[in-house]
Amino acid sequence: MAFLRVLIVGLLCCSMLRSWAIEEGTTLQGATMAWNEEFAYLTGMQAFIYGYPIITFAELRAQPLPGGQSMVNRYFHTRHLADPGQKYGGSPNRETAYSLAFADVSREPVVLTVPPNPRQRYYSLQLCDMYSDTIGYIGLRATHNIPGDYLLAGPGWKGKAPKGMQKVIRSWTPWVAVFGRTYTDGTEDDLPRMSAFQDGYRITPLRGYRRNTSLAKSHAASQVTSKADPLSAFKTMNAAMKENPPPPGHAALMQQFALVGLGPAAKQDIEQLDPAIQRGLRRAIVDGRALLARVAKAGGSIVGATQVRNGWFYGPSNWGRMAASGDFLGRAGTQVFSGIVEHQIEESVKLRTFVDAESKPLSGDHRYVVHFRKEEIPVAHAFWSVTLYDENFNLVPNEAGRYGFGDKVPGLKYGTDGSLTIYIQPDRPEGEKAANWLPSPRDKDFNLFLRAYFPGPGLLDQSYAAPSVHRVVE
Predict the structure, then answer these.
(1) Residue 262 lies in a domain
(2) Which of 85, 151, 203, 256 is the most exposed place for a label (fewest CB within 10 A)?
(3) Could you tell me which of 353, 392, 401 has the C-alpha nearest to residue 92?
């Protein structure tokens, strides 16, 4: 817990040093700031970084679905691959359709059922605590494609699992987010088969499983206040943390947050706080989001330091388990802000680049070439891909309907030596190059995201180097 002690002492010292060096009433950052506003701002920044994942998950759980359906103990499935019309950020991939559910294990376990998979279709159910770290997997890799029933139990459950459970997975939070990914090639022939496979995913509360009956779906009280409220994020965080308390080892940090009305230990509602403290918290939300955007773009993870090779930076090696190393900044910035949730590297290794070979931002104002020699093509036992995203981590609309390339993309032309050359530009290239065209957004910056599912050794140990993105001199 040394990280927490250093964090708290640092906040205290920062306020103390300023109070010694600056007389009361001195202008700070262009405005007269009371000491309690400054302290609320500093503490609020840390609280926002710590709490951003649970804020995001609470907002996601509260999302309205067609027909008033709930994602509590039931799946919401997308039946097609992601497209540019979906402006949610999060860098959606183009190889799997998504499923999402929130399992309520606060009172009893639930049974997660997965169907037989004789075609060896890639799928995974990633089980995440409400702070975005992974507590377990069910899928082609993690559970060796074994169909059947898996018990998901919450904190404090001491019952006995029914016979026939393939595995018991435990969560330390009373709610669990289940992120499903099911491979499809996106064709009219495969989409119905993929959808039928998704329909084989089921969530059954233990009582219903034992009785062989279905139970009424649970519901979750919304913890999200109006986005028009500038303190909405912290109000959501407070409510969500009371439902899903942080681990006991973070108690000292929670006591620090409570001094400015934040976290599960807070003694006052935010609305009852001194106006100066509220001002500091509002500033912390605005600046906290801006900071996380910068961290996401830089791939920042102080603890899980990443390799940068040829302008591509690896996702942090501690993705999916970031709280264990106290990496709350990486968890919020690289795991949630840019991706909502991230796989552990055993499931998928990811690299991203925002720059060309000269370290200049990738821009739709220019044309680029990426040349993979045969030995540079990523080794992935499931599949690999490179997808293009805009500045907000959304797919980019284009006339070709192509958003990336990889070993599952039909029609790509490889060289006689096994190499692969990709042409990234806003306008369609002439001749045979058009087969390997990846459209970029005209006059806008973009980034490239490489994914490798069931990655080979070179990706796992970060010794693999993807080729640089070279700007075409015109």
Answers:
(1) yes
(2) 85
(3) 392
CA 394/CA 401 separation, integer angstroms: 14
pLDDT digits (tens, 9 = 90+) for 209-250: 877 665 555 666 667 777 789 999 999 999 999 999 999 999
Same domain, 329 and 457: yes
Shared domain check, 330 and 286: no
What is the spatial distance between Cα 179 and Cα 341, in angstroms, rounded to a whole number?
8
* Boundary of a domain, candidates 211, 233, 259: 211
Let me know whether 87 and 201 are in one domain: yes
Take residue 101 and report the two structure tokens written for it.
């559910």
| Residue 2 vs residues 7, 249, 251, 256, 325: alpha-carbon distances, Å | 9, 11, 13, 15, 10
Are 251 and 323 within one domain? Answer: no
Considering the domain boundaries, does residue 298 fall inside one?
A: no
Position 214 scores a pLDDT of 58
Count: domains in the chain: 3
What lies within 8 Å, CB to CB, of 167 at 6+ separation is 138, 143, 150, 151
In this prediction the pTM is 0.87
Instruction: Please report, to the nearest 10 degrees, the dihedral formed by the alpha carbons of residues 207, 209, 211, 215 taken in order.
Output: 60
CA distance 384 to 137: 20
Identity of the amino acid at 323 = A
